[in-house]
TrEMBL record, chain A:
Residues 362-438 form the DNA-directed RNA polymerase III subunit RPC3 winged-helix domain. This is DNA-directed RNA polymerase III subunit RPC3. Pfam families: HTH_9, RNA_pol_Rpc82, RPC3_helical, WHD_POLR3C. It comes from Sander lucioperca. Component of the RNA polymerase III (Pol III) complex consisting of 17 subunits. Keywords: DNA-directed RNA polymerase, Nucleus, Transcription.
């Protein structure tokens, strides 16, 4: 947990959950696992508020609790990890992906689950049906079965998963006898790390739920909120046979989807649309057969690829072979050849593609910050690994003085490192080689921290701008409310213009400028998050492969993180 | 020491000067005497943001999500800061917020027992209030009765505390006392509010002093939420 990550997590918590949760959350992030009394004592917040904040954090999966380490009877300890909180940046992207794949219904399901943390299936379906009904015309409403089918599809493709039952929890009885076996006591997890949802066999099993009805439209009145709460209380009293089974969004699956999209769009940019379609087909075919952390997909024969291509593209067989050869020869190494049987066996190299995408990101960062000649030096060092000062000047074809300047600028920014190779054991400066080098992984980590810092700065600036113009914003909101109520009650146009003129022209300009700034800052956050995703995927993929190499090349399928932790502990 | 002192007049560096490429007579950049400026001048301007339909939709999603989170019970407001002068409208305002907080009931099976927030029992408070209504409305008498009611309520609360939290006793020795104090304080505050609520003829939500007028209206969803 670096300082930048903690700062960004604090800001995200503040924006989405309030300042109290921010204080509790940052305290947990900085202090590790703590029990309730320590938190209360050190943050100085009242007991009730701390309890509520912890409930909120646990509900959203940001905090895990377990019984104390000092043996039975010691108070429960709470621990937060910043990974989960940083995902909040990516929520719009998840919702948008669900919309493109599963339409408005899918979009709303994912949005509800992200807002609430985790919910039961029946609760989600009811809320989503109500929301959809709100937006439909008068007299029409959304049937629960449509929403249920969208839910099933999301679970089938693993975008949603069950929340893992608590370690040592007792089996929950289901209300209806027709329900399948509830997530019973799991085998006691061996490791001290919390078990992933995937380690439970019922992770993607949808319970049998009796849910018949249609969405309810809320009456548009001032007491709408109270009525809705009253209705909710009535509806919740019916049980639907899935109490205790909560569902959450499966972020890893979304990340796989984003990764595939990144590879496909990279191929489309580098080569052409047809090659990207071929790669898309290959990835689609290997969706279910490839584990999330695999280095490359399972080998696919050219015949299979030919059969699975979308018919609208009409690619004849010899053209497909030519495209595949092109893809293999490309220096980005997206596709590799794994054999000759079946017309040629081809794989998509996931990890190498990610590494190359990260490398392209680093190069573009250097280019945009320092100019294209510095970028040339950077690319040179990436390719040639270690070079002396003189060699850099020669290979990059840049005059010595300027090359020196650029190298030192890059060195001072820590993008380039200096490696000393002594000729004599006493490291005498005149008898030592000084080689410039670029290490991709540490540089990527450093840039990732820069990205976190950037997003934190953007959020802070946005909060500052809103605070500066708080009075103006409130005034404009009030006037719009007045306008809306006047229009609803059928007022004359003169009254409306009179109300509109309450905001003077310079104030309108100020509001416009403010809106523009805030939109820009928000949009910038979204786009920096794309870079964050790329760098994080690269770092995670490299970290897991290097650990795998340490363990005698044994390939571990499925949930690698926990098993790797165990294995590394066993091995070292 | 002697060697290092002699280098004061000349430049001395820890690394070999020729190998890195600094020849004699080259002017080095001036040494830095103060921290770098807060906003250093950028030689290269950054690229503009990509602007397209997808980006705009993502932007709208993000702002809507933020706005929606603010209205959910997950958004915990700190206890409102006391204003410098106690205002007449305070007693009508403060109870509005607390309702939203207690509205949300998470699945308690998934949370540790100690996080359970016990609602102060409403039954005891309303009984005390109804009792006070029956009596005459003399101020002094009322005050005496109030004290009696409060004491009675404290007793009932204590009994309830002991009954419910016998299971948690091992874990929460001192915490229970703290909780009791908090709940008593809460109970007292709520009791006062309830009493005033009963006394006035006006509907509580009717009164507003114009500060929050129109702030709750979410009907006009075209407006971007900040």
């Amino acid at each position: 947990m670096t300082a930048q990550e903690v700062r960004l997590c604090g800001l995200l918590l503040r924006e989405h959950f309030g300042e109290v949760v921010e204080k509790v959350g940052t305290h947990l992030l900085k202090g590790g696992a703590q029990n309730l009394r320590t938190i209360i004592h050190e943050t100085g917040i009242s007991l009730d508020l701390v309890k509520k904040s912890l409930c909120v954090l646990v509900q959203h999966g940001a905090c895990v609790f377990r019984s104390g380490r000092k043996g039975a009877g010691s108070p429960t300890e709470y621990q937060t990890c910043c990974d989960r909180i940083l995902r909040i940046l990516r929520y719009p992207r998840y919702i948008y992906t669900a919309k493109t794949l599963y339409g408005d219904t899918g979009e709303l399901i994912i949005e509800e689950l992200l807002q609430r943390g985790h919910m039961t299936m029946s609760g989600t379906i009811k809320t989503v049906a109500d929301r959809l009904t709100q937006n439909m015309e008068e007299g029409r409403s959304m049937d629960y079965s449509e929403v249920s089918s969208a839910f099933f599809r999301l679970v089938e493709t693993h975008f949603l998963q069950r929340c893992p039952p608590l370690a040592g929890a007792e089996p929950k009885d289901s209300a209806t006898p027709a329900a399948p076996a509830p997530p019973g006591t799991p085998a006691a997890p061996v490791s001290t790390a919390p078990p992933t949802p995937e380690s439970f066999p019922d992770c993607y099993k949808v319970p049998h739920v009796t849910l018949v009805g249609r969405g309810k439209r809320q009456l548009a009145s001032e007491d709408g909120e109270d009525q809705r709460n009253a209705k909710k209380a009535k509806m919740d009293s019916q049980t639907h046979g899935d109490e205790g089974i909560c569902w959450q969004v499966n972020f890893e699956r979304f990340h796989l989807h984003f990764r595939d999209q990144a590879i496909i769009s990279a191929v489309a940019n580098k080569l052409d649309q047809t090659s990207s379609e071929i790669v898309r087909t290959m990835l689609r075919m290997s969706e279910v057969t490839t584990s999330p952390t695999a280095t490359c997909t399972k080998p696919l024969s050219a015949n299979e690829i030919f059969r699975s291509l979308p018919t609208s593209y009409n690619i004849p067989r010899p053209i497909l072979d030519q495209y595949l050869t092109l893809l293999i020869d490309d220096p980005m190494e997206f596709v590799g050849k794994a054999g000759e049987s079946g017309g040629g066996m081809y794989v998509v190299n996931m990890h190498r593609a990610l590494a190359n995408l990260a490398r392209a990101t680093l190069e573009s960062v250097v280019q945009e910050r320092f100019g294209s000649r510095s970028a040339r030096i950077f690319r040179l060092l990436l390719r040639k690994r270690h070079l002396e000062q003189k060699q850099v000047e020669d290979f990059a074809m840049i005059p010595a003085k300027e090359a020196k300047d650029m190298l030192y600028t890059l060195l001072s920014q820590n993008l380039v490192q200096l490696q000393e190779i002594p000729k004599t054991p006493d490291y005498a400066p005149s008898r030592t080689f000084y080689l410039y080098t670029v290490n991709q992984l540490p540089t990527a980590r450093m840039l990732l921290q820069n990205c976190y810092k950037t997003v934190a700065n953007l959020v802070e600036r946005r909060l500052f701008e809103s605070k500066e113009s708080k009075r103006l914003l409130e005034k404009s909101q009030r006037i719009e409310a007045i306008l809306a109520s006047l229009q609803a009650s059928g007022a004359e146009p003169e009254q409306l213009t009179e109300v509109e003129e309450m905001i003077t022209a310079p104030e309108k300009q100020q509001l416009e400028a403010l809106r523009l700034h805030i939109n820009k800052l928000d949009s910038a956050e979204n786009q920096v998050d794309e870079t964050i995703f790329l760098l994080e995927s690269y770092i995670n993929s490299t970290a897991s492969t290097s650990l795998l190499n340490d363990i005698d090349g044994v390939r571990l399928e499925g949930q690698t993180h926990i098993d790797l932790d165990n294995a590394s502990r066993a091995g070292h | 020491m002697a060697g290092r002192g002699g280098g004061r007049g000349r430049r001395m560096m820890t690394f070999s000067v020729e190998a890195v490429g600094i020849t004699r007579g080259d002017s080095l950049p001036p040494s830095i005497q103060q921290p770098t400026p807060l906003f250093p001048v950028m030689e290269q301007k950054p690229l503009p943001l990509t602007a397209g339909e997808e980006e705009e939709y993502l932007l709208a999603l993000k702002q809507e999500f933020r706005g929606a989170m603010k209205s959910l019970p997950c958004f915990i407001q700190p206890t409102a800061a006391h204003r410098d002068v106690e205002r007449y409208s305070d007693k009508y305002h403060s109870s509005e917020q607390t309702e939203a907080l207690t509205d949300w009931t998470p699945d308690w099976k998934r949370l540790p027992k100690e996080l359970r927030v016990k609602k102060p029992p409403r039954g005891g408070v309303s009984a005390a209030v109804s009792r006070s209504d029956k009596l005459q409305s003399g101020q002094k008498k009322k005050k005496v009765k109030e004290k009696e009611e409060v004491l009675l309520k404290l007793e009932t609360l204590q009994k309830k505390e002991e009954g419910q939290s016998s299971e948690d006793e091992e874990e929460e020795g001192e915490e229970k006392k703290k909780k009791q104090e908090e709940e008593e304080a809460e109970g007292e505050e709520e009791y006062d509010e309830e009493e005033f609520e009963e006394e006035t003829d006006y509907v509580m939500s009717y009164f507003d002093n114009g500060e929050e007028f129109g702030g709750d209206s979410d009907d006009n969803m075209d407006e971007a939420i900040y």
